[in-house]
Amino acid sequence: MRHVTIYDTTLRDGAQAEELNLTAQDKLRIARKLDELGIHYIEAGWPGSNPTDASFFDTVKSHTFANARLVAFGSTHLNRTTPENDPNLAALLAAETPVITIFGKTWDMHATKALGVSLERNLELIRNSVAYLASRVDEVIFDAEHFFDGFKHNPEYALLAIRTASEAGAARLILCDTNGGTLTSELSETVKAVMTALPDAEIGIHAHNDSELAVANSLEAVRLGATQVQGTINGYGERCGNANLCSIIPNLELKMGIQAIGPENLRRLLITSHFVSETANLRPFMRQPFVGASAFAHKGGIHVSAILKDSRTYEHIDPTTVGNSQRVLLSDQAGRSNILFKTRELGYDLDKTDTTVDALLKELKLKESMGFEYSVAEASFELMLLEALGRKPDYFTFRHFFVVDAKREEDAEPFTEATVIINVKGQAEHTAATGMGPVNALDRALRKGLERFYPNLSEIRLLDFKVRVLSGAVRDTGGTASFVRVLIETGDRHERWTTMGVSHNIIEASWQAVVDSINYKLLRDDKRRAKEAKE
Amino acid sequence: MRHVTIYDTTLRDGAQAEELNLTAQDKLRIARKLDELGIHYIEAGWPGSNPTDASFFDTVKSHTFANARLVAFGSTHLNRTTPENDPNLAALLAAETPVITIFGKTWDMHATKALGVSLERNLELIRNSVAYLASRVDEVIFDAEHFFDGFKHNPEYALLAIRTASEAGAARLILCDTNGGTLTSELSETVKAVMTALPDAEIGIHAHNDSELAVANSLEAVRLGATQVQGTINGYGERCGNANLCSIIPNLELKMGIQAIGPENLRRLLITSHFVSETANLRPFMRQPFVGASAFAHKGGIHVSAILKDSRTYEHIDPTTVGNSQRVLLSDQAGRSNILFKTRELGYDLDKTDTTVDALLKELKLKESMGFEYSVAEASFELMLLEALGRKPDYFTFRHFFVVDAKREEDAEPFTEATVIINVKGQAEHTAATGMGPVNALDRALRKGLERFYPNLSEIRLLDFKVRVLSGAVRDTGGTASFVRVLIETGDRHERWTTMGVSHNIIEASWQAVVDSINYKLLRDDKRRAKEAKE
Fold it and tell me: What GO biological process terms are annotated to this protein in UniProt (chains A, B) (predicted)?
């Protein structure tokens, strides 16, 4: 069976997307998820270019990945210097990654116009930079920027540029359709010419989607012998985005008989896609192939009756192979097996015929129709599961909260104060706190009431807080009166967990997520203690 | 020059999209716009299948189109009847369109399983239906449903089915990739086989996007000789959508040298795309090729400096050919030239040496270091610019706000109330309002105080509301006490705009964004009135 390697650049080229902004923490979380998906290379940033990337590479040094090789990205050395004295190459080496990718000019016009060097000097920059790095790291990958445009204008020079990189020690040559303007038929001819000219080189493809052809172009290059595909999760990237790995990987695995991440990992595709969009706080694209909410949703009457006879009639693949599921709009059938799958994953052994499964399915459908999205908040799902099983411990009971924000013209920021009443172990606790905002004030007042009983709560840190207006509702009532979903990520010294709340009211949605987060912490501590007592 | 005809099915197959619902009036407005774009065929609905379509065909009879031929869509006649007695065929003829498209089964499994007829009887249904309609309307088009899957399983039968339609009088045979699962390389081989088997037939292509290959597949069929492309505006359609005409048309016109709608009409592509998404009340897809807001947006410093030298360096086509334009995003790398570019774009003619440019650059960098991101909130940028120029009108002045959220154990959601004091035109306005949440309550109270003075404010709708915790701050103080950035998207009947606020306190950040949004609306109305007075 043929293999290709998948090279993800969500954290570097993907982050060039107009609406995408990732913190160093976001990047680390996404890198972990990509590793779990079985991605072979993770291009994590351009260490010389900005403080976020520099801070990320510092943090990531202490982390080991199970599958993925981490890649630092940069350019060939500057014209005015030498590799030894080039600040960019130094920053690349300082990132201490096993792999370095550098891009170089292969379009003659770019060398002379954008870079302002002679064609011969440009080849020197490539040769020097690759050779310098190749003796210092495991693997150097050469990104041939604008290769297809370059080949169109001056095929000899474009080939000479990549040949130079190859001879200087680049392990792979990546043909980039940087502007995304190349038609599949043109790309096909160009790739054939490269294969003929450099029969022994390892060739990869890096496509952009400006002509809506990035997936087709990537698959065509692989069909002709490319052994690496570069792209991003959900096709995020500058302008119209990069080649979408969420479409390329299943096409390779399920249709072309080529192994990329393998069938087991492939089932994690949907969850990875959601994880990245949620972390970037971007609305998932419903019509996205393979992993979109609508990808296997059937609306028309004829289609629905046909798929009930045989799902192949209107589905090109089995949706479960990518972690998705069939949805029949109006009368939804999906669920039972999903519930069993998830509860087993969490360590609760339910029987197929258990009535809890039905109760849970009903609750799940109700909650999801309101906008809850449990795939990104498994801590909240586990709490809901325990509730349905009648096994959720009663750590505290809500009685009342009250929160005020007031601002006068002379204030820079509002004054915020919250009061909370809860019952804990038979006692009513009434606490008050100020805060940097209403959610912070509520969170502090609640913890003030609880920490006397549960001192471990002082360990937890709220790591992230995200709010999303849910689509659909927006149209009915206008933005500020819509349903909002709040996601909170919390951590202690053992782990991190995500909880969720949904409401018309952002305070209420945040409160739900904070309450879930605290309950989850107390639950995990109990479990840990029980386990330790056993051992 | 080669020509192909464009067949739009936004109103029929497009309306199968999960989120798309069109009234008969919506359909008529879209049909007019498609006609203006120079579309050759408009498939307007399935008259026998639902009341919206029946009502639409009644209304449209009185309308004449400049370019487009209207098409009614339906299926071959029912097994239990004859063409003369078939209610579907009768409804098609009653629509009185010059063109009728019927689909028939060409995948053997579909004939026997989904339809439940013998293979021979299926050919009879096709033959009878096409022949009956062909003698009664100008043109009958045959949609070969599941043609590519059918050809894979039983090529002889698939070819026999379309040959039958052709011999019965179908003017065109449309090869449909109904499930959207066909790889471009497979499709290529199949189209070649059809061209060889039926060298005199007019062949068309109807692709779906389930493998993210619909555009590539449509272009490949045309390259091999297909003379018609079926698709939808923005790629709307069931599951992952239909082939996207907004990408296919410019690829044909600008890259393949094939005339579809002509270069003059092509400039209307962006406006048509927006018109359809607005009419369908769907959020435009930013990363959409050719017509998306991000399609020619440049963020990275290297890219920006290169396109200022020569836009071909990072743009595959001239954006104005499809009605789009180049955008330079404001970001923390922004320098003097970005500021000048942006202010000129907004219609403010600043000189390079103007001290306002320095003041603005300083303010921009300060605000961006706090977490403001003007590239996504240009309305807030314009207000900041006016402030720097000393030309921001004083519509109202803030004095005070006070907002309360209270929840007791018996409540499902908190009770929320806001009071606001502002000065408007010399008067103090003190108003109060409840809301679905604190921001909604504040927004309502503020507008209550303003609408008496500025009645146009009743036109605006808040379309989206996004909250993001900003990097850096998260680590220092924990999630709920971090800096948050709120983005609000607002619209009226003329346009949409985005404003922004940043604060530790989500209420304060939201308040800033709401205040900017209202100021921007009042500013735009003033500008519009001034322009009208001049004309």
Answer: isoleucine biosynthetic process; L-leucine biosynthetic process
**Stretch 103-162 of chain A: residues touching chain B, C-beta under 8 Å:** 109-110, 113-114
Residue A43 has pLDDT above 50, yes or no: yes
Query: Chain B window 20-39: which residues touch A at a Cβ cutoff of 8 Å?
Result: none
Residues in chain B closer than 8 A to A283 (CB atoms): 283
Same domain assignment for residues B353 and B411: no
A459-to-A436, A456, A462, B97 alpha-carbon distances in Å: 20, 6, 10, 72
Q: Which domain holds residue A65?
A: 5-279
A vs B: CB pairs below 8 A = 379
How close are the terminal C-alpha atoms of chain B, in Å?
43
pLDDT > 60? residue A113: yes
Identify whether residues B156 and B249 lie together within a single domain. yes
CA distance A326 to A303: 12
Distance CA B71, CA B92 (A): 9
| Domain tally, chain B | 3
Answer yes or no: do B186 and B256 share one domain.
yes
Instruction: Out of A317, A437, A504, name the one closest to residue B506 (CB).
Output: A437
Residues A226 and A348 in one domain: no
Strand residues in A69-227 grouped as ranges (E): 69-75, 99-105, 139-145, 172-177, 203-207
Closest by CA to B258, choosing from B201, B206, B218, B209, is: B218
Contact A307, A326 (CB under 8 A): yes
Same domain, B361 and B247: no
B184:A184 CB<8 A = yes
pLDDT above 70 as % of chain A? 93
Q: Phi first, then psi: give them for residue B471, nearest 5 degrees.
A: -65, 165
Q: Distance (Å, rounded) from C-alpha B465 to C-alpha B446?
A: 17
CB contact under 8 A, A464 and B475: no
Chain B 170-209, residues with CB within 8 Å of chain A CB atoms: 178-181, 183-185, 209
